[in-house]
Design a protein that fits this description.
The protein is mainly α. 59% of the residues lie in helices and 0% in strands. It is built from six helices and no strands. The longest helix is centred in the N-terminal third of the chain and has 25 residues. The relative contact order is 0.11. The C terminus is likely disordered.
């Protein structure tokens, strides 16, 4: 059945209304991964993004921002987030875990540099280095004493 002019006009008005409504809703609600929204979040959290004094809080902050990272840096941001989460749960007395975390942190340097460069270029935000929580290195106790210096009497 051919469409009459009245039906065609009604159809066009309906489609136009739906498109306009969708555009307005996306403008008001905003894309959760928009560059502008993410830059605003970076500015709001500034110094906390590189503060290792609360490792669990730092990992949580990166995880919260991970849900909003723009597509251009999403994978890199996620890599950093996963590294920080792992750093809060590893056993610094376990040499294998410590070495694995150090290797992961070296592998993540490209992601860290990429995100820092993107944040500087797009947001005019300087992130600096992502500091991992202080942990004993293999061969040290948590107090910083070398295991080789421990003596038995």
């Amino acid at each position: 059945m051919p469409m009459t002019r009245a039906r065609a006009r009604t159809f066009c008005v309906t489609v136009s209304s739906i498109v306009l409504t969708a555009m307005l809703l996306s403008a008001c609600g905003g894309d959760p991964r928009s560059v502008a929204g993410f830059c605003k979040r970076l500015r709001e959290n500034g110094a906390a993004l590189t503060d290792p004094s609360d490792p669990a809080g730092l990992a949580e902050l990166f995880a919260a921002l991970d849900r909003h990272a723009p597509l251009a840096i999403r994978e890199q941001w996620h890599e950093i987030t996963a590294l920080l989460q792992r750093a809060t749960t590893f056993d610094p007395q376990d040499e294998a875990e410590t070495q694995a975390l150090l290797a992961d942190s070296l592998r993540a340097q490209g992601a860290i540099s990429g995100v820092a460069g993107w944040a500087d270029a797009k947001c005019k935000v300087t992130l600096g280095a992502v500091a991992l929580p202080n942990a004993a290195t293999p061969g040290e106790s948590k107090s910083g004493e070398s295991r080789s210096e421990e003596h038995t009497s």
